[in-house]
Specification:
Elements: H1 2-52, H2 61-75, H3 80-99, H4 106-127, H5 131-140, H6 150-167, H7 172-185, H8 191-201, H9 203-217, H10 226-238, H11 246-262, H12 276-283, H13 286-292, H14 294-298, H15 311-326, H16 329-338, H17 343-356, H18 360-368, H19 374-388, H20 395-406, H21 411-424, H22 430-444, H23 451-466, H24 471-492, E1 501-502, E2 505-506, H25 512-523, H26 525-531, H27 533-540, H28 546-562
Antiparallel strand pairs: 1-2
């Protein structure tokens, strides 16, 4: 018995030692991976810093601004001083790019629009780090005031509001300044979501802007200025007490009441009377008028709408739309308590956001708590379970995938499905994923040479790299000469069937088949960067045009800093 106890005890000790050893190995593996990732990031930073010194070799102001701002954003947290200097150069180049262009001239209109789009992208990049600098850049690069183009003014207003909403939570004073600039140009409905956003966290700034808007409306004839009247009506519905202060809200409603009675809305009028439109508009506000001035509201009863808007519902919809677009799962879920009438849509969107983030376990828990019908709940859970099944695919499921492929008559569809299936599989199914990709590769070889075949080859390369197979980079190495030929052909056709060059350089706008392919590669550079960074950088040196080579290497560096690529999470696969 004693011998048995000693033997059993020794087994426990061995098991414990084995467990400790496994834990130590796991810890060691994790530390090695972290060290490797840190070294890879240092390589990426070194590459980007080196590339920043090559910007002066570019001839196109557009390319210098585009590539320089990309590098600046990636270097910000690593070397903020260098990033700021690159953004200063980008500002100078945007000014140079705009100075000789006239948007009213058809020959300049396209280039002008491209520069404005690039300018907006750079503002977005800066705003993620420094709201004040973003505003300074926006102001410094504003197109010349002598340009007689509504598009310029409209673009500037939209960009100001986009920046304001982007920074409102953390920089309310800058957002208020932008709101005032937009208000100075006129009454824009873009101001309403900004007011709503400011009111949730920064009531003082929201009230200041609200009062200034109402003050400006005092000088407007609401009955005869349709644009201002529409804006004021939307304001009255969207921004109400307690978000708005009572006195200012009463003043706004009073403006409508006074204008309505002064323009005959208290009397009967024919349907042909041009004042009917304004009186009907006032009727949509009758509920608010009754609360504030019931005596005068009684004179406007005839204009009451049968289905007056519920202001709380409208405001809830606006807030929900904003949070759903930009919020976290927790922020989206918080809306369900605030707006119970919208809880079904809110829960569904929270589930989708969790799926987008790859957190399928969280998505499943949310689906289990879905407040809708049991059948809907079960359908959501079943869909998520199907997604989770990709984490560990069985031999039977692989066989089913191959059967599905066999039954598809179109070769391109078979390729897309095989690539999609391989991209959904987790690391435990690497062998099965590579087998499917090999099968897809055989089909791709039979496709007619052209754009579809090239796109399929790039999709294959991406998924091979996702599963850490060097075959992905081998495919890309074989494709670069073809891409060079496409670029060369496009350059010869510049000005005939497209605009591919800017100051003699490739313009990076994605125009044409070659531009589309190169833009897709840039957007998916993360796959190649994490497969074998050194080899990918070396491979990019095969691009013949220096500006394309420079951008390719920037995107590889950015790909590393963005983190490892994720598996396909959607139910639809597209190469680009």
């Amino acid at each position: 018995m004693i011998r048995f106890q000693l033997w059993a005890f020794s087994l426990v000790i061995v098991a414990l030692c084995y467990g400790v050893n496994q834990a130590q190995q796991s810890s060691s593996t994790s530390e090695n991976e972290q060290t490797a990732d840190a070294r890879l990031r240092e390589k990426a930073f070194a590459l980007l810093e080196s590339l920043s010194g090559q910007l002066t070799t570019l001839q196109s102001p557009e390319n210098r601004a585009r590539i320089g701002s990309n590098i600046a954003e990636s270097l910000w947290n690593h070397d903020e001083k260098r990033a700021r200097s690159l953004l200063a150069l980008a500002e100078d180049n945007i000014k140079i790019g705009l100075q000789d262009l006239d948007p009213t001239n058809p020959a300049d209109a396209r280039a002008f629009a491209t520069i404005l789009k690039l300018r907006a992208d750079i503002v977005d990049r800066i705003a993620r780090h420094d709201a004040g600098l973003a505003l300074a850049f926006l102001t410094a690069t504003e197109p010349r005031s002598d340009l007689p183009s509504y598009a310029v003014t409209n673009s500037q207003r939209e960009l100001e509001m986009r920046l304001a909403k982007q920074i409102a939570s953390d920089n309310p004073d800058v957002a208020l300044k932008l709101g005032r600039q937009t208000l100075a140009r006129g009454f824009a409905n873009d101001l309403l979501p900004l007011l709503s956003q400011l009111s949730r966290k920064h009531r003082d700034q929201a009230l200041l802007l609200y009062k200034e808007i109402v003050t400006k409306l005092r000088d407007v004839d609401l009955a005869h200025d349709a644009e201002a009247s529409d804006f004021a009506q939307n304001l009255a519905h969207a921004f109400t007490p307690p978000a708005a202060d009572d006195a200012t809200f009463k003043e706004l409603i009073g403006m409508f009441t006074t204008a309505a009675l002064a323009n005959g809305c208290g009397n009967k009028m024919s349907d042909e009377d041009e004042r009917v439109t304004f009186c009907s508009q006032v009727g949509s506000l009758l509920r608010q008028i009754e609360k504030i001035d019931p005596a005068r509201a009684a004179k406007l009863k005839q204009w009451a709408s049968e289905d007056q808007d519920d202001d709380s519902s409208r405001k809830g919809t606006d807030e929900a739309a904003e949070v759903i677009q930009n919020g976290t799962v927790e922020e989206i879920l918080a809306l369900a308590t605030k707006y119970p009438e919208m809880q079904f849509d809110i829960y569904l969107r929270a589930i989708i956001r969790a799926e987008e983030l790859g957190d399928l376990e969280r998505a499943r828990k949310l689906a289990a708590d879905y407040p809708g019908e049991p059948a809907q709940r079960q359908a959501l859970i079943a869909r998520i379970e199907r997604n989770q099944a990709w984490d560990s695919v069985t031999d039977e499921q692989v066989a089913q995938i191959q059967k599905t492929v066999t039954n598809s008559p179109r070769a391109q569809d078979r390729v897309s499905f095989l690539i999609y299936a391989a991209g959904r599989m987790g690391p435990d199914n690497r062998k099965a994923a590579l087998m499917l990709l090999d099968q897809a590769s055989g089909i791709v070889d039979t496709l007619k040479p052209g754009r579809e075949q090239t796109q399929a080859q790039i999709g294959l390369a991406m998924m091979y790299c996702l599963h850490r197979s060097d075959r992905g980079l081998s495919i890309m190495e074989s494709l670069i000469p073809k891409l060079n030929d496409l670029v060369a052909a496009s350059v010869k056709l510049d000005g005939y069937d497209g605009n591919y060059l800017s100051a003699g350089e490739w313009n990076m706008t994605g125009e044409g088949s070659a531009g589309n392919l190169l833009t897709g590669l840039a957007q998916n550079a993360v796959y190649f960067a994490w497969c074998d960074f050194d080899r990918a950088v070396s491979m990019s040196a095969a691009f013949e045009r220096p500006e394309i080579r420079l951008m390719a290497q920037v995107k590889l560096g950015q790909g590393v800093l963005a983190g490892p690529p994720k598996r396909i999470q959607t139910n639809r696969f597209a190469v680009f």
